Batch of 2 targets.
Target 1
Amino acid sequence: MIELKDVTKVYYKGTPKEVKAVDGISLEIAKGEMVVLKGPSGSGKTTLLTLIGCLSRPTRGRVLVAGKDTSRLQEPFLTFHRRMHVGFVFQQYHLIPDISVYENILLPLYPLDMTSQEMEERVEDALRKLRIKGKEAYRAKDLSGGEQQRVAIARALVTDPEIILADEPTANLDTHLSRDFLKIMDGLKEEGKTIVIASHDPLVYEHKGVDRVIEMRDGRLVGCS
Amino acid sequence: MFMNSSILALVLGGITTLLLLIYGAYFGLKIALQWNPESATEEQLELEKRTYLVSTIVNYVLLFEILSLILFIYTVDDIHEIIPGAMCATGSLNANRFGFPTLLVKLFTFFLYGSWIVLNHIDRKAEDTPLIKTKYLFLLGIIPFAVLENTLMIAYFAKIDPETLVSCCGVVFNPGGKVTSVLSPLPKGEMMGIFFGGFLFLLLLGLAMYWRGGRLIAYLFSASSMAFLVISISSIISFISGYIYQMPTHPCPFDFLQREYHYVGYPLYIALFGGALFGLAVGIVEPFETRYRSLTKAIRDFQKKAVLLSMAGFSVFTSISVWYIMRFILL
Amino acid sequence: MSKERHKHILSFSITSLLRRKGKNLSIFLIYTLMVFLLGSVVFFVSAIKREAATTLKGAPDIVVQQIRAGRHDLIPTEYMEKVRTIRGVTKVIPRVWGYYFDGPTQSNYTIIGMDGESYEAFRDRIPFLSPEEAPIGNGKVLIGKGIARSRGLKRGGHFYLLRSDGGLKTFEVSGIFSGRSSLLTHDLIVMSEKDVRELFLIPARYSIDLAVYVRNKEEIETIARKIGEVLPGTRAVIKEQITKSYETVFGWRSGLVFTALLGTVLAFAILSWDKATGLSADERKEIGILKALGWRIEDILEMKFWEGLTISLTAFLAGIILAYIHIFFFGSYLVAPAIKGWSVLYPPFNLNPYMDAGEVFMVFFITVVPYTVATLIPVWRSSTIDPDEVIRGI
């Protein structure tokens, strides 16, 4: 499902700020796997996620997502590919605070050329699945942290992607809510989705549903279990 | 030199558009020279973003060109009052030798911008954007015409002399007049025959293009739609305008853009030129259909749409004309 | 053709405009103000031009003036006999009229003397004229609404004017022209010929000029030339020349005012550019989020296009409607002083409402193009924000 071949990502190349966020990583993740990227902050986890999630392109190397080499795709095609295959749950949730829960979940569907009815059905599905039905009229900023995350997950799922990526999903949650999150992930895994989570929370990487933990440091893979 | 607000608006708008286009073409040239899809450097990513800047610019330039064409006709029509002998836009355009050339070059650049947007639209459908160099060099080639257009327009307004008598549509377009020999050499009956015959021919060709396609038919359709544009304009002068004015001796192709005729000229010309542009587009993209395999499907799909739109445009034009003819005959 | 997508992006754009009311409201107001000013100028000029055209419809085809020392002088009334003999001339009327500068109100009156035949011709030829039934002569006069207003005169009221020798002459208002129109009657006083002669001290055998009416309009130029031959030392002014100089003068005037307003347009463009460039952190983040969620650059561009279009169209409509009301129902208070340029009494109080699509379009062109050009590059910049930048929290 996901394949990285000797991937390097350099930011601010040629300037004093130059950073090698990801350095020569090769990695394969099979369909239906749940993988955790573990490592201290600054180890390159998020960058690796953005590469897998087609949010950015590698400076060197190849990235294959859902059978397509995305490393040299131009922006519209890269975005198109992301739309079709990847759902992203961001660390800060990144909801738009002033609009309703319902509209937040709709956002990924706007450019897809669906009828309003189809869009409505999709959102209803996601609301039901994440058990946030009844909250759809609230503005995103009026929700609690746990609820916000559910909305963020619903938004990631609404396009029905095969790959779910989550960046530090439990960083702002208490233990109870973190367990809730992992339960949701287990459910998605059962549906056959491929899941990659970047986290340094033991609760996450020690979770029994996780198939593999990949450890990162300074942009390199240092261990795999 | 004559000045009023709309002339000022036209000239300033024209210069602004030109500068914008040059700005866009500069980046276009940069893209054409430095484009390297295998590279993932910041420079390449920046170039990629610039392609959006350039295409946005040209989209707006086309829009401004259409707006400025409309404003130009309006202005030229408006100033006939200060030009002795002029009764409508035809007379004003005749005020010096820059009038009609300005209009013609304006129409020509309209087709150039339209063609560029079509190429860009097609190119963006393929992941490897194979036309990237072609289209940006083409853009560079449009600049001289944009410069010419604005130069002619400024010269035209600058050289208007309220003292010189000009000849207007009655003289210009009537049998024996200046333009007659070029645009309507045939009597009305034959002109009608050519017009309706040409329309049917174009429809058949369009259907053949839609169902079957093929290189020859594509070029033929494209050429025919440009020819039909010329035939239509001759027909407007020869008989259509007469029916609209309900006055067979008044062959003016501009008057019906005015309020008195419910602005019917606008839908008429927009349909006609829209039809012509889409017809032209069918041929413009044809050479790339087989040359770049990544474009083949996109081009075929586009041609089908363009043929339909082109036929629709011409049909709207013809229907409005027929409606006016019927009204004249029946009432 | 994909339609749903455009609809959804449009509706999102509008809600997103409404979410940022503060920022968008200021642009909207300034945009509206600009359209209002330009629209007012354009409507005003074209309304005045139309009034002038109506007035000129009643003007004589040719006016014959005596020229002495290069200036307009009194013309011997007997000359009319010579003009009348020229073929094609239907009527010659010697006219007695003049301008009167009124010190206290700082305004210029036009005073026309009429009797019998000329009074009838005047009434026949001017469609907007509708004085109440009122006699003129022996100090009884008709006055325009502007004069009535500035001097506080009513029907039956008395006022005086200074004679050319400094003495006073008293008049009685026997009628006031209706305010419906126009350039002609607003600051006009119509009195008997005798009264005018007394006021301006014009000798009995002389007139100010001769008004000539011609049967066939195509012959006007020939007849004017013949008059020049028959009466050396006179000048024959053709109506068409007046029309043309009207056009040119108004063209220039509006052009000048327009040029002045272009400064405003430029300032507005800079402001729009600035507003569009100065994306708040929130907006940047929002665009980054949208892109991360699968919006392409062209989707963002489209969203920004709809935003711009919404602002442009609403501001444009608001500005045009306000300009229309200002010019045709509120007496053009704001633009009149800049354009009218002569008597303080102008313009006529109520111009006849009229709107021409071409004029409206011109205002559209001159406001929307600068706005679009100014926002184009900032909009493109914001659409190319990298989503991963926002996601990584940079």
Target 2
Amino acid sequence: MTTTVQAAQQPLSAPSGLGRGSLATRRRLANTLVRTGIWLSVIIAVVPVALVMYYVIAKGAKMISWDFLTKPIPRQLANPGGGIGPAIAGTLLMTGLASLLAIPLGVLGAIYLNEYGKQNALARSVRLMSNVMTGVPSIVMGLFIYTAVVLTTEQSGLAGALALACLMLPVVIRSSEEMLRLVPDELRQASLALGARKWRTIVTVVLPAAVSGIASGALLGVARAAGETAPIVLVVGLTQRVNWHLSGSNTALPVQIYRNATEPFEAATDRAWGAALTLVVIVLLATLISRLIANRFAIKER
Amino acid sequence: MTQITDRPPAQPLTARGRGAASDRAFSAVSLAAGALVLAILVLILVTTLREAWPALKYAGLGFVTSPSWVPLEVDGAGPVYGALSFVYGTTVVSIIALIFAVPISIGIALFLTELAPTRLRSTVVTVIDLLASIPSVVFGLWGIIVVGPALVKVYNGLHGALGDIPVLGSLFGEPVSSGRGFMTAGMIVAIMIIPIITSITREVFATVPDADKQAAYALGATQWEMIRGAVFPHSFGGMVGAVMLGLGRAMGETIAVALTIGAATQITPNLFAAGNTLASVIALNFGDPGVPPGRSALIALGVLLFAITVVINYAAAVVVRRADVRMKGASA
């Protein structure tokens, strides 16, 4: 009884305005607190990025030289000198082959999902499972290639490329399907009305309309794959010399960062920072190119 | 005028003929590519389980109940394979990571959808994208060389201040001198899962109907009350899915954790102590797995990790999709 009376009296005792000052202190305080928290969380996220980039550039830049980028890896990581040439070669070789495998297969898979399967049971389960596959830890993918490929053959660049391709595949499928979905249906209908077969419609009309988005998504997948360490450690082995062949032990930039980081010697730490800068530059270049492609050729969303 | 050239008879589009064959071939190839995903997932389970079998048979139920992992012959006694302390390490690191990452990610997502001035928005998005594209091994390198040693002082301070309080004291125990342990690994992982949680919660927040927000403001709500009353209830399902996806990523994170967790097989409440996770122990010991079936036992850890992450990711995918359907229905 008393509460209703109070509620009815409140507007009388506190003349209401719509300004900020008329709010109850508690409500105003809560609002300010939350707004501060939100700004703070942005700052907290920016700080580590800035710090990592600072350390990678500050400590890595002084290592970078033509010799460092091309010379073979020293046998003793404790000694200064030597370079990371074989690791750069291995990263380019394995990431390149993985892209050649995963991008066509991924785009075809996306074509199945968006053009053929649509909402049927198989397409829905493929869609769900490619989401699940994106979350499979990279180390598990490494174990998979180890048990399926390495045990019957050898540790090799090919095995590394297969592992990276498995990691890229679901990423490519998901991003490509998003892009295919943005292609207006009128284009398909127009092509079909001209008498084109479905496959011809897809290859000559739908894919060209979506190609920039697909390329940009695929390049993001490539960037992600180039930085993968765990599967490479398991399936690729180790080498000191440049190996452009798919067979035989190989190495990659992330593996060299990992190995050098675990050594307590200053020469090794320096080498790790230098390799980290090289890897970050490669990854960011791929990301940047993918951004440019996406912005330059973006198809208009409907 | 009357000359009508002989046209070839129009070819009807039928389910037969050369064009139709290529049509069928193309659809079959794309179907195969789609089905490849299912095949790979099944193959992962089959091949890893086959290689893990000797160790699983050897260890029996002890594989999931024993906390000790001794991959060597000690005084004639055979090796012991118990995954419990690694499961514990995985859980602790993931929980620490979520405690740090979830509020920050939700904060960033709210900033991007509700608070940010337009010009700042694209800058923050770029920074988060940059965060997502830095390889995990680079975070690991930073963690082991810069963060760990820097945090030891903080850990020592916390240990000194809170170490004598009964329950908290056991959490904030004696830190490792290198700074490598559950807490350091958890914080590094937190940085790495911020982008994924942020991007999904942001998508979810963006689907909150403007009418709901305007209605909240019209009732005199402050910004926080609008967020609490209109944004959060609408996007709760999606947020849960985002957190679960972040959890899946945190559990599978390997190299950065391997570098920063300090590699010890133990179950301790001390957050500053060294430990190991399922993923990191595989990466650290695969080159030198001990006596047979040591490597098989490491693969068995991988099977366990695979099973856990698949269940979590499957559940997350279902939750996100359900939330997605509900929201699209609501805003249509």
